[in-house]
Amino acid sequence: MIIVPVKDGENIERALKKFKRKFEKTGVVKELRKRQQYNKPSVLKRLKMQHAIYVQKLRDSEE
Fold it and tell me: Tens digit of pLDDT for each residue in 15-61?
């Protein structure tokens, strides 16, 4: 459970912003979206390879 201590006289919007930031850091929404659809291992491997090629091209272009 996420607990956000609210100080006396603190703006409610500021407290909500703190809550949203903490909630985002937990990664709950990201995990939920990831679990909504199953990806085959071969697809994950292909995506990982494409990302590695993309990063390599970026590094090569810097030099």
Answer: 999 999 999 999 999 999 989 999 999 999 999 999 999 999 999 99
C-alpha 18/C-alpha 26 separation (Å) is 13
The predicted-structure confidence for 18-30, as pLDDT tens digits, reads as follows 999 999 999 999 9
Longest dimension (CA), the chain: 54
Give the C-alpha separation, 29 to 35, whole Å: 10
Token pair, residue 59, equals 């590094």
